[in-house]
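Per-residue structure
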Amino acid sequence: MRILRDYLFIDPDDRGACAAIGNFDGVHLGHQAVIDLTRQVGGGAPLGILTFEPHPREYFAPDAPAFRLMNAEAKAARLEKLGVEKLFQLNFNTAMASLTPREFAQTVIADGLGLTHVVVGADFCFGKGRAGTVEDLRRFGAEMDFEVTVAELLENSGTLVSSTAIRQALGDGRPRDAADLLGHWHRIEGEVIGGEQRGRELGFPTANMSIDGLHPPKFGVYAVQVDMRDGPHQGSYHGAASVGVRPMFNGDHPNIETFLFDFSGDLYGSTLSVALIEYLRPELKFDGLDALISQMDADCQKAREILAAL
C-alpha cells in the first residue's frame, strides 16, 4: 500500500483511484462496508482511502479529551490488511480547513488526486464549517467529472455502528461489545517504553506502552492477546494487561502495562499490538505488596482460562 500525504504533488501513476472518504477511526464494520462498496463500484480502479492527519477534531480542539480509537500507524496497518492500495493521508492544516466545499471538490478530489469515483457515508459533510453535503458532492462530481456513491449507515443488532458507540462500550469495560461493532478486537498499538520496573520486582515483568492521544478504555485489568510486530520475539502471545494510573504506586499518568504469559526476553523498542479481550476487574489499591501479588496471580489464572476458551 502506498501512503501519499500531499495532494499537490501526485505522481500520474497514483491518479485515477476510486476512494472512500472519511476518518475511518477504528476501521469498524461500517467502515469496512464502505471499503467493500468502494471496491465493488471501482470498476477495476485502484482501491483508495482519503483521510486526514491529524484528525480534524484534534485540529479544531487540541485540548479536548483524547478520543481516537487508533493512531495513524495502526489505522494504516488495518487498511492495508483490507486490501487498500492507496492511502491518501492528507495533512489537515489551516489551508485544508479553509477550503470551501467547492474548493475541496475541485482542488483536492478532481485536480489534486485525480479521483475517478468517491464513496462517502450518508452523513458525510465536508469543506469549511462542514458546509458541504452529499448532495453538494454529487453536484460537484457531475460538474468536475468524478462519480459519487453514497453508502447507507450500518446497524448491528439494532445499534448504529459508529466510533462513538465503540468508545462507549470500551469506556464501560465491554471490549467484546466493542469487537462486535469493530469486526475485530480493539487493539492498543505502540512501542514498548521504559518503566519503573516494579512489575519485574514483583515477579510480573511488564511491557509498558503509552496511551497518549487514544480514547482510554475503562481503567482496570484485562485478558489480552498480544501480537509482537517486530524484533527477535515476533509472534502472538496471551497475557494480562493493566490500563490506568497504578493507584497502588500513586501514579497519575495513564498507560498500559502488559504481562506476557510464558515469555522471557527484552522487549524495549519492540512494537506490540495488544487486543483487549475481557475486562477482569477495576484498578485497586491494596493493603500491601503480598495482597497485590496474590491478586495478580488470580488475574493471570482467570485470563488464561478466558483466552484458552477463545
Summary: The domain at 2-153 is CATH 3.40.50.620 (Rossmann fold). The chain has two domains: 2-153, 186-308. Residues 289-308 form the longest helix (20 residues). The mean pLDDT is 93.
